[in-house]
Amino acid sequence: MGKADLHLHTRVSDGFASVEQLLEWVEHCTDLDVIAVTDHEDVRGGLQARELAAKRGYRFEVVPGAEVTTLQGHVLALFIERDLPSFRGVESTLAMIHDAGGLAVAPHPLSWLTRSVGERTLDALRERGEAGVGFDAIELANPSPAGRRTGPKAARLNAERWGLPAAGGSDAHHLEHIGAGWTEFPGRTSEELRLAIGAGTTRAVMSAGIAGVPPARLALGLAWGYTATPRKVVRMLGGLR
């Protein structure tokens, strides 16, 4: 069984490590087989990470992605090659992810600590059952404060109602937290991961807790994270002038 951390951030958005530092840490300090770099509203970090990992011959594979802000909450877009528009309806965003050849994961579902897709939205998507407009997986192992508090409820509701494949990711903004949450899947490669999500043969796993980061740096990380999307919007507007 392989291990994939599907929710990582770099300095491209609100992470504390550069792409290069993140790759070095994964190579030498974890046993992960696949990672997904999912910076807020920006696929550049994932594309850079995939290129650099291949160039250096690292033992793991990189999936490019982004954490996209919708009107109903964040969505992880995996296996994408370009940025997707933010602040659209979740159904429109899900359709765009699939049109771009990607997979959509609901990160830290139900959480009130950060922008998250809620119970009503997941119920509505399930009831509609429209092809191409739904989540491919739901993040049920996220050791961050946002994911840990509502994870058990999300897991229960997923078992009772939604029936989505389980995913895990650390939501790491600090190197020390990488690999604290992961997706277990049959195989070792990113393509085998993708097939496992489609087949529903994944398992969401996380460690007992996250540690190793001083409280002051954690607080700074939270504050920096809340401004990631506004900063990206300001840069986008500046580029349109």
Can you lay out the helices and strands and say which pair or pack?
Layout: E1 2-8, H1 19-29, E2 34-40, H2 44-56, E3 61-70, E4 73-78, H3 90-99, E5 103-106, H4 119-128, E6 137-141, H5 145-162, E7 166-168, E8 181-185, H6 190-199, E9 203-206, H7 215-226, H8 228-240
Parallel strand pairs: 1-2, 2-3, 5-6, 6-7
Antiparallel strand pairs: 1-8, 3-4, 4-5, 8-9
Helix pairs in contact: 4-5
What does this structure look like?
With 241 residues, this protein is an alpha/beta fold. It has a 9-stranded mixed β-sheet with strand order 7-6-5-4-3-2-1-8-9. The model has no long low-confidence stretch (mean pLDDT 91). Helices cover 40% and strands 21% of the residues. The chain has one domain: TIM Barrel. It has 8 helices and 9 strands. Helix 4 (119-128) runs parallel beside helix 5.
